[in-house]
Write a structure and sequence with these properties.
The protein is mainly alpha-helical and 169 residues long. Among the domains are: 36 residues, no CATH class; 82 residues, no CATH class. Helices cover 53% and strands 10% of the residues. Keywords: Signal. It comes from Rugamonas fusca.
Length: 169
């Protein structure tokens, strides 16, 4: 028997047709997380029939099936919350990042404020020691001239210094 190019083409077409029927054996279903799955194998047994969207021998559209809103009314089980979208996840990430930056700024400002308060308290303690020891102290008048503090001025300075020290820990 002689094989002509036409016979070879017909045999090849028949082989491709036989193989292509296996390629149609595709399954499409929605898993328990709400994600569409596509496979050449059947879905796991825990997947309900209503979640199987495509299977060999099952039409993609069933004209006798109830409308989607009727199915929702018939469903006794509560709907699971859909996983967040990429946009929602991105918005959450940006919100967390902004909150973290604000917390870091607040923490740094608090640290600076405490350091300034400590320095102010230390200066007030040094001034109080000098006032208590009777060390000769000078101030400057409105003309910029150095003036030695008298007893009344020392007492007033000590009173103001005590008010500052009352706020120190």
């Amino acid at each position: 028997m002689k094989h002509t190019p036409t016979t070879l083409r017909v045999a090849l077409a028949a082989a491709l047709l036989a193989i292509s029927t296996q390629a149609l054996a595709q399954y499409l279903w929605i898993d328990e997380k709400g994600i569409k799955q596509l496979s050449d194998r059947p879905p796991p047994p825990n997947i309900p029939e209503k979640n199987i969207l495509k299977a060999p021998g099952k039409p993609l559209f069933n004209p006798n099936a109830p409308a989607p809103d009727e199915q929702a009314a018939d469903a006794a089980e509560p709907k699971a919350k859909a996983p967040p979208t990429l946009g929602e996840r991105n918005a959450d990430f940006n919100k967390r990042r902004t909150e973290a930056a604000q917390a870091a700024r607040k923490s740094a400002e608090e640290t600076r404020r405490k350091a300034a308060e400590q320095a102010n308290c230390e200066a007030a303690r040094n001034n109080q020691r000098a006032l208590d020891e009777g060390v000769r102290m000078t101030t400057y008048d409105k003309d910029g001239q150095r003036v030695v503090m008298g007893d009344a001025e020392r007492a007033e300075a000590a009173r103001k210094n005590q008010q500052v020290l009352a706020n120190c820990h």
